[in-house]
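Notes for week 9. Today we move from apo structures to complexes. The key idea is that a small molecule is not decoration. When we ask for a structure prediction with NAP present, the ligand SMILES becomes part of the input, just like the chain. The input block below holds both the sequence and the ligand string. Read it once before you look at the output, and try to guess where the molecule might sit.
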Amino acid sequence: MLVTGGTGLVGLGIARAFLAVGAPAILVGSTASRAARAIESLGGKAEVALADVSDPAAIGPLFADIAARHGPPAVLVNAAGINFNKLIGETTVEDFERVMAVNARAAFLCSRAACEAMVARGIRGRIVNVTSGNFRYVRPGSALYSASKAALAMLTQGFALEYGRHGIAVNALAPGLVDRPGSTDPNFLAIADYYRGRSAGRRLVSADEVGEAVLFLASSRAAGMTGEVIVLDGGFSFGRPDFPRHA
Ligand SMILES: NC(=O)c1ccc[n+]([C@@H]2O[C@H](COP(=O)([O-])OP(=O)(O)OC[C@H]3O[C@@H](n4cnc5c(N)ncnc54)[C@H](OP(=O)(O)O)[C@@H]3O)[C@@H](O)[C@H]2O)c1
């Protein structure tokens, strides 16, 4: 299993889930120091490949290197992503290009490289895209992030449609706010309170729960599922718990 963004909070949860069932994990990140910390936190059990996936020129060499070392991956998880919070009036063209490049174009290019290699080798593989609950709602400052995550959801369906006849299944997971145990960041804590207060389950999701859901989507148990976006948000986005009650 190859996971872009594998050195981050969510990516590490995904790596732990695969390693726990004995599946190899290759983590892609762009910074060496973060990658080293990630591998250490996994007890040295995963491999790492460094690449800036927002750079189209980096994708070919990344997949060639991985194929040479391990063979083409049967499972690709696109989890590399950047959060972005700016009102539309303050958002620059450079912001737009950067967010779309990391959150949507990188997944497009990595998925295409992986799918073409799977087709060439007859591998009936899996792609799992980590989008976000924001793919179907906006909050102030999230227009660009939400748009990039909606693009990823539609890419999921496009890839599922075009590569399905080769036995490749492509699905997406849309997590809500992922818990960061021990965080003292006041921004995170305020948003976490908001999520807890407005989710049916009064909870966040953990990175390990995201990992378990990705593992399911990559497994034969989900063999009949493709082109779907599964929301994992403790029941945050489907209802309006603070809606005024009729007297
Ligand atoms: N955390 C949440 O609450 C949440 C909720 C819903 C969805 N998500 C999604 O989950 C994914 C991971 O988020 P996270 O919370 O784990 O963020 P994170 O901890 O900041 O991790 C981001 C990961 O993406 C990598 N990355 C970013 N830009 C890259 C680039 N240009 N090339 C290669 N790797 C790059 C980072 O590595 P480097 O730093 O080395 O580049 C890191 O491994 C994102 O797609 C995010 O939108 C997160």
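Strands lie at 2-4, 26-29, 47-50, 75-78, 126-130, 169-175, 229-232.
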